[in-house]
Amino acid sequence: EDFLAVDKCVVALESLTLSTEPDAADAVGAHRLIGWSSIDGGPVTEWVLDGGDESHPVIHPAEAEKRLGQNFVIGSLAPVETADEPIVTEGTTFEGSADKAWFTSNGYAFDGASAAAPWTFEAALPELFYESSAAQALYFADAELTGTEGETLTVALVLRDIDPSTITVTSSDATGASVEYADGEAAISLLKAGTYTITATNGTKTATTVVTVKEYVGIGQVEAEAASALRYNGTEVEAEGCAIAIFSVQGQQVAAGNNAISTETLLPGVYVAKAVAADGSVATLKFATK
Length: 290
What we know:
The chain is mainly beta. The chain is 6% helix and 43% strand. The chain has helices at residues 86-90, 100-105, 129-133, and strands spanning 10-11, 44-49, 55-60, 72-74, 92-94, 119-120, 127-128, 137-140, 144-148, 152-160, 168-171, 177-182, 185-190, 194-202, 205-214, 220-225, 231-232, 236-248, 253-262, 269-277, 282-289. Strands 16, 17, 18, 19, 20 and 21 form a 6-stranded antiparallel beta sheet that branches. A 4-stranded antiparallel beta sheet has the order 8-10-13-12, with no helix packed on it. The chain has a 4-stranded mixed beta sheet with strand order 9-15-14-11, with no helix packed on it. The longest helix is centred in the middle third of the chain and has 6 residues, at 100-105.
């Protein structure tokens, strides 16, 4: 099949240093474009049997390179020209302005975001950005987070082959969920009920996590069932003349007493109080502490 192994290649070196290893000591030279070429090997001698024990040599001339296209060398790198076809193996010296437009005219596609256009041009030469970033990874350890107004959530940002200092992390609405990023973690302050997207960015790579913020009910009574004697005043649960028990939302009893129970030692959260009067009547109250 007819194809070009090297085409539209641009060499931008200032010098070449030949190897001093024994295996390379006899090399004719190192061409600017492809290094050692089959042309440099010269003719190849093949010994062919005559039909008996005798043989004769058949000399095959070195074949010209057939897989090299139009290639270029920028700068003052001198050609070696040890081959029969030096322009093919050395590349054409280009002395003009090798700017972005010139590279584009030679088939380089720029935007750095895909295999179809993998190059970026930020300085004097193109950089193969897409290939260099193909092994990189960027994602949040949790794709979804849920919390209540007033809380701060932390989520790890997982990186591979990415400098953490190049990361920027933003919120879709900082008035509802603000974010600060440091040392591989995003700290998200939940300010207002709603749903928000936290986005981490590094060049063309992005990662997101969705944060759902629930409304904080506040300190005080949430729901009451039965007797008006059972109430929560912010620091204690009261029910005059009743035996009182306080339970977590998981059903575990966390406090008990008569007439009144202080809630100041309870952890912030939602609780259920149960009061039983002397006549056996029962009242329950759900409340939250902060």
